[in-house]
Amino acid sequence: MVVSFEFVWVGCFVNIKPGVFSEGRSDFSVDVGGEHYDIYFQGRGVSGSAEALVPLVMLAAMKNNQDIHVEGVCSPTFMANMCSLSSIFSKWFSADGFHQVSVQAEQLRVPEPAVGGRVASFFTGGVDSFYTFLKHKDEITDLIYVHGFDLPLEETAKRRAVSEMGRRIEQATGVRFLEIETNSRRVLRDWGRWGVHGHGLGLGCIGRLLTSEFKRIYVPSSFHESDLFPWSSHPETDVLYSDESIEFVHDGCEAFRAQKIEFISGFSVALDNLRVCGEKNQLDLNCGRCEKCVRTMTSLYACDALERARTFGESLTSSLVLKQLIYDDSIVAFVKENIALMERRGKSGSDICESWRVVLGRSSFENKLRRKIYKIKKKIGLNM
Asked: What domain of life does the UniProt record list for this protein's source (predicted)?
């Protein structure tokens, strides 16, 4: 049954229209906050669903205090969930200027419950991604990689490396590596910070565009349940992209990062393809020198797995560890996890463990000074 509503709108609102759909591609035109966006999503299974864009425009609507109106038929459960998401974000991020807004549609229809269907997990090749994938390997049929979120669209060479990684994983495991390309990240970055506010909303948008493909989508966690804080992808908010047709699951909060590495180190597919590096213009999967690379290499070293890991070109040395900088609380937590892991695995007295203790013992002032010098050297092109 279709339920129709007539709306009387007071003030401004964000109006979302269905996209222009052709095989494997959907195009949308969005106006919000005085800005115009021509957005596309390309990849197998994407739809032209207007309701899928609600998470994408959420930050802009909340920043401009504009309610969201969706043209066409929408899921009442999903619309109610998006109102709940707005309520949560407005409390978490009130200091950032986000207001609670309502989300409504012209017509509401309860979707059919998912029967059968495939099971996916969002995937970048990192520790969190591999942990969720391998933990649910008997269930997961697809890994979803979003080009334009994880990497800028212009980084085509790195994209090819990621695609090759995906093909290797397909051959080794039989899962489908599903690549989605989009230019929609700008909509979220224009109105908030990508990590803190935006990336979870982006994944929610992609997942809703793929509801005809999947009955369940896993969203790998970034943090342990004891370390949770307001963050765009969170166990309280990721589940709100669900309705009767699809289930979203925030997965992996029970394990610390070092524990995840300890788990995945037992799988050759992870050691052959692990990708953790965030350095720009890095053509290989990992640079082997940045903070994320070195702490991951340390965990693999502690698990006697580093020599079997094929995606790190550098050797782990005490001098490389001593170059690392601690510039936020999350890195402090990761360093402490690694030290505890090395102590538990019988490497407490190693040069690597001692070097991390030195790094952890530096003052905040020294770390800030070292980071400033690092940025200056990097800007002028000195070899780091």
From this structure: Bacteria
CA angle 261, 266, 271 (to 5 degrees): 70
What letter does residue 267 receive in the DSSP assignment? -
What distance in Å separates the CA atoms of residue 24 and residue 144, rounded to the nearest whole number?
15
- Contact criterion met (CB below 8 Å) for 309 and 269: no
If one counts every other C-beta atom within 10 angstroms of the C-beta of residue 368, the result is 14
Question: Which residues, 6 or more positions from 147, have their beta carbon under 8 angstroms from its beta carbon?
Answer: 153, 159, 162, 179, 180, 181, 182
- How much is the pTM? 0.91
Closest CA to 162 of 136, 170, 223, 204: 170
Q: Which two tokens stand for residue 154?
A: 């212009």
Residues 291, 306: Cα–Cα separation, whole Å: 16
What's the topology of domain 118-251?
Rossmann fold (3.40.50)
Task: Name the DSSP class of 243.
Answer: B
**What b-and-e string marks burial along 38-51, b requiring 16 or more CB atoms within 10 Å of the CB?**
ebbbbbebbbbbbb
Token digits for 194? 């990508």
Domain boundaries, the chain: 3-108, 118-251, 288-379
Q: Encode pLDDT of 5-34 as tens digits.
A: 233 333 457 888 888 888 889 999 988 888
Residue 20 in tokens:
């222009």
Closest listed residue to residue 72, CA positions, set 15, 25, 9? 15
29-63: pLDDT as tens digits:
988 888 999 999 999 999 989 999 999 999 999 99
β-bridge mates for residue 30, sequence order: 37
Q: What are phi and psi of 117, to 5 degrees?
A: 85, 170
What is the DSSP secondary structure assignment for residue 111, as one 8-state letter?
P
